[in-house]
Amino acid sequence: MTVAKKTIHQITVPTPFAVGDTHVYLLKGEMLSLVDAGIRTEAAWVALVDQLKDLGYMPNDIEQVVLTHHHPDHTGLIDRFDKVENIIGHKNVEPWLTRDEDYFNHFETFYYEYFNLNGVPSRFREVLKKLRGQLDWAGEGKLTIPIDEGDTLPGHPEFKVVETKGHAQSHLSFLKDDGTFIGGDHLLHHISPNPIMEPPLIGKTDRPKPLLQYRANLNKCLSLDINVVLPGHGKIFHDVSEVVSRALTKQETRANKVLSLLKEYAQTPFQLCEQIFPRQYETQIDLTMSETIGQLDYLEDNGLVTKTIEDGVFYYHAF
Asked: What is the pTM of this model?
């Protein structure tokens, strides 16, 4: 699909994930750029190459790749473009692209401690051994140009960089001067992205609070004069205020459910997770725990709950 006077082209590639297809965007400007790079499968590569050909390009015509964030369905094919000079994104994508062993050891250690603190039973430790498995779908490379909030996009000065952390600690979006917003997974019409828990930076102690970041950055989008959203998944849309309102309301409803459970008695985050996600927690413990603790962060930030630690495990209490 072609939008924005044919300077931006949407290309859609399949994924094996439940989220479905991923969109990447070809930008024409001072450089020929690809925003995001799908997932590391042959099916995705064939779909990308075929659609590039339909637009009159070959993979070797791509000069740079810009990443919205580090998740594998957005980075998978970055190393398939032989003539790419630059890989551009937030500095936090770097350890994922370079397979930084120190970072992954830090990541795994954080998750083991995080599961213990939040009362997750030991049977779920096997899931943690598979955390690196997502790298099988991800591309390898090196970040050559780090960008962040307020920068202009190299080769495309009409785009401003907008920091949109929440779904990922590396998440950026790009706002064109005509109101076109390339939003990655931050703004999606049909679903709300899961704010995924990540460790603090190496050397830091306070973990990020992704749900609070996500809410703040949703509200920030309301002040950006966005006319159209080109998302990482799902349909292109214009009704930004409605999408933001719906996402915030859905989150607040879930937080109120957590609060009502805590008004019955103090509970661990895992006990809450079992009740909020009875069908999903066994197979998606990392995602469902991220969501549960996000709601607790929100309630704590609003002065509605407090936590104590008993036998090395957090218990949350409603006021």
From this structure: 0.95
